[in-house]
Amino acid sequence: MTSLEDPGVSGRVPTIERGLADEGELTPTVAFRILANEQRRFVLYLLAERGGTAPVDELAALVSGYGADSSTEQGLPCVAHRRLYHNHLPRLAEHGLVEYDRDDEAVTLTDRGEQLQPYLAFARERESRDVDGMLERSRRS
After folding, report:
1. Which domains, and CATH codes, for the chain?
2. Computed from CA positions of residues 18, 23, 24, 30, in that sequence, does the dihedral angle turn out positive or negative?
3. pLDDT tens track of the chain, all 141 residues?
4. Which regions of the chain does DSSP assign to beta strands (E)?
5. Smallest Cα–Cα separation from 77: which of 58, 64, 59, 87?
6. Cβ neighbours around 107 below 10 Å, total
7. Contact assessment for residue 47 and residue 107, using Cβ atoms and an 8 Å cutoff
8. Could you tell me whether strands 98-101 and 53-55 are parallel, antiparallel, or unpaired per DSSP bridges?
9. Backbone phi, then psi, for 47, in 5-degree steps?
């Protein structure tokens, strides 16, 4: 029996990877899954710092210098750009956290993305990387 067939105690079939609760709220499971990735957290930190909107190239350049693999080839902006473009931004958009305008190459934090701020504040206090340094660098660019 798969997890989709197991009605559990309530008799309901659970929805796997649903993400959003019926009222439009983010579930903690999805919020933590989204925020488990350092690049996605740093994109969200930057968008909040920038008033909600930033160009993809700028996000890629800033995030690449502070990513987990910034000392390797994976830290190069072109790789960071590809990961943002093909993985992280679509995932954030899929959950309604950002709007990504492919024509303008701009990313905008949505109202739903704002719901992550308490989770981001918690993560920011505990980051092993210098989030404040990255945000300061973003103000200068």
Report:
1. 28-140 (1.10.10.10)
2. negative
3. 333 333 444 444 333 333 444 345 678 888 999 999 988 999 999 999 888 999 988 888 887 765 444 444 444 557 777 888 889 999 999 999 999 888 888 999 999 999 899 999 998 888 866 766 667 766 666
4. 53-55, 98-101, 106-109
5. 64
6. 27
7. yes
8. unpaired
9. -65, -40
Which amino acid type is present at position 127?
A: E
Structure tokens at 85: 């473009």
Query: pTM, whole model, 2 decimals?
Result: 0.70
Alpha-carbon gap, residue 65 to 119, rounded angstroms: 23
Q: Please write down the long-range contacts of 91-94, taking CB distance under 8 Å and 24 or more positions apart.
A: 91/34, 91/40, 92/34, 92/40, 92/43, 92/44, 94/19
Amino acid letter for position 78:
C
As given in the structure block, the two tokens for residue 10 are 């309530």
